[in-house]
Each structure stands twice: as C-alpha cells, then as structure tokens.
Amino acid sequence: MSVAHSLDPQCIPRHVAIIMDGNGRWAKRQHKPRLYGHKVGVDSVQEIVECATELGVEVLTLYAFSTENWKRPADEVGGLMGLLKNYLQKELNRMLKNNIRLTCIGNIEKLPSDVREVLEKTMAETAKNSKLTLNLALSYGGRSEMVHAIRNIAEEARAGKLATEDIDEKLIDSHLYTAGLPDPDLLIRTGGEARLSNFLLWQASYAEIYFTDMMWPEFREAAFIQAVKEYQGRERRFGQTSDQVKSG
Ligand code: FPP
Q: Domain containing 127 — which CATH number?
C-alpha cells in the first residue's frame, strides 16, 4: 500500500460494498465524453481492489451495472460492456497472483455472450482463490433479486421440498445471489447522492453507510482508507442500546 494509514487491523470490515457513481459528471467537468469517465473509473476499480486485498477485506462488492442501466444509450451500454470484458481479460493474471476470487451477482443471462464467456472463464479460473472475493454486481437490482429468490422458494414449496414454516431469514438469504457471502458491513456511495438505488436492499440492513461527494474516477486508495477509518469510529449497535454493546 502506498499510503501510510492508521487503521485498526482488528476492525477491518469483512464486506465492503460500493456504489461507484459520478463517472459521467466527472468526465463532463473535464469536457470529455461519458465513456472516458467510465474508463478512468476502471483505474479506480483496480486501485480499490488492490487496497481492499492488502487491508484484509474479505468481500468487495462493486455495483458495476444495474438493471436500470440497460436504459442508457446503446453506445454507453456497449462501451461499459467492452470495459468490463477488457478489465477481466487484463486482470486475470493479477487475480491469480493476488489470490482473488471473482464472483458476480445479478441476471448475467442478459449480458452479451462474449462478456458472459469471459466472466464465466474468470470465475472458473479463480474459483479456488481465498484472499479477497471480488463480487461484481452486473445487471443487478435488489428488487429483481428478491423476485428471483421468492420464485425459487415458491417453486420448492410447490414441489413439496419445503413447508411455509421453513421460510425464515436464513432460507431467504440462501436463495439470494449473495448466498454464502457475509452481509456488507460498510456501504460506500461516491458521487454526492445519498440513496441506495436498488443495491443490496436486503443485505445492507445493518451496513454502515458512507456517502462522499467525491466522484468515482477520483476515489482512490487514500479515500478508501478514509472511509474505513470513519467506519472504525462508528458504534455498530444492531438494534441494541449503546450500554448493551459496551458490556458485550
Ligand atoms: C455510475 O456513474 C457508474 C456506472 C453506471 C458504471 C460503473 C462502471 C465502471 C466504473 C467501469 C466498469 C466496471 C468494472 C468492474 C470494470 P454514472 O455514469 O451514473 O455517473 P453520473 O451520475 O455522473 O452520470
């Protein structure tokens, strides 16, 4: 890590989730096309993945493409798909070297077949890695994830594989795209907006949320460390009182 930091190594968030917003506005300020913002945004992705790995974060979920993003102009959607494919091809060796496992959440059936192929190949080749899980949210929406989970649960109930009483939080968790991953501890949103935009609606119930005005292409290592620092200063109560938390 190039930036010296004073983080408590005992209190690193296990799962950090990021809404990477502001690429288009950042590009506009530089009098550049929106795609240039996404391109520099990929450099931020690369830097944050490296920093998260070094800090010992276990899961980093990045909101790379939402279900709503399909409505953007075709050239922007095509450009984003191209950047994603390039990123995966370029980063495979580094993922293998740094023990990074790639996973994804979302309706990846909707991705162009060439992107899906590279994605599936990268996931297969990194499947046994165990330091950081880099989890890309692609064609992802929290509501559509819940619809997908509820349909699967209903199907299993209809087939007699489970009873209504079997439906609890754990069962729902196990039917979400994020099954097997811990819930996010820290959710970061760049770009100055303060909303969740259909991201990890179920999983982020107790996440600490950190909003910053910084645009995603400028969000680099020092900014990430600052976000983790603020997280470390917060008291996580999970619905309990402050005194209960302090007495353990
Ligand atoms: C939001 O900025 C960002 C996106 C919709 C895409 C994020 C994608 C990348 C950073 C690059 C590809 C990702 C990977 C993992 C290689 P915006 O365009 O909505 O910005 P604006 O609000 O300023 O218009």
A: 3.40.1180.10
